[in-house]
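Can anyone check this?
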Amino acid sequence: MKVGIPKEIKNNEFRVAATASGVHSLVQAGHAVVVESGAGVGSSISDSDYQRAGATILASADEVWQSADMIMKVKEPVADEYHRMRKGQLIFTYLHLAASCECTDALIKSGATAIAYETVEFGKTLPLLAPMSEVAGRMSIQVGAATLQKPNGGRGVLLGGIPGVKPGKVVVLGGGVVGLSAAMIAHGMRADVTILDLDLNRLRAIDDQFHGQIKTLASSAFEIENQLLEADLVIGAVLVPGAKAPKLVTDALVAKMKPGSVLVDVAIDQGGCFEGSRATTHADPTFAVHNSLYYCVANMPGAVPATSTAGLSNATIRYALALANNGWEQACADDLGLAQGLNIHDGKIMYRAVAEAHGLPFAG
């Protein structure tokens, strides 16, 4: 199979779909790999690095898309890429289709087969979402702490406080990979951290892991409101695999929060879990809602591509090899977890949550 890796063109997206090591694994398995010139530069991977791994460098995105049987990307296709997708082509990337009617419609019209990283399963985990969730969760505290600084419009709170001065209060909504990663960093910065989740067993595990030093609460509208009224920084980290994120924080509640408080919506890829959320970019990451600041960058890990690309490629390469070695139909038949990644095929929606999000027929 010929595998194509184009350069990402989403705003301030510096990741690339595979490292030189990942490309080498595909080539060693007998596959041809074509990489758009400059695709890896943002992740400190040169064209010569890819060539040494066995890839062929092509001058343009059009050449990569036209020649490849399988396209490996990081982010969902954007409008400037829609015309390049074609019937019979396999696209393997993050898609987040429940949050994008436009991309869903474009994929349906193209006739391509699209497998989404974020809905591939392994047991009860999401192995291709996990590494970027870890990055985004850890980053959420980093960007939240910076946004809290007064020159950036925040309250002027130091998360860790100092002796004699109380630390900042961080509230994390969701105890999954993102939430746990965020809580870990906030705790390391000596913030006052509370994490809310519906899963009591998950909260028990978090309590055990941190020896009670991170507060845990069973999530409810009542507890969310109580916690947010005291919060300096809120991390939205809820996830319903493949579906739109539930709206847990209303504009009316935000209006009652402390002036200069910061809300980071890591769930924005799936539509966001705050009522007022809208996707932003690294070029213009924040906006005001009442007297609070929202940070809703839809590709947070793209800001740290040297880390993110390596983590993503480590996770995706074995699935890419299965797809290239066996074709998508046999690979999905052999691995039911990989089959859960199938979102679109031949103009039909194959993932129920995507169909329900858009009120379209489900053909799975």
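Reply from J.R.: I decoded it. Residues 305-334 form the longest helix (30 residues).
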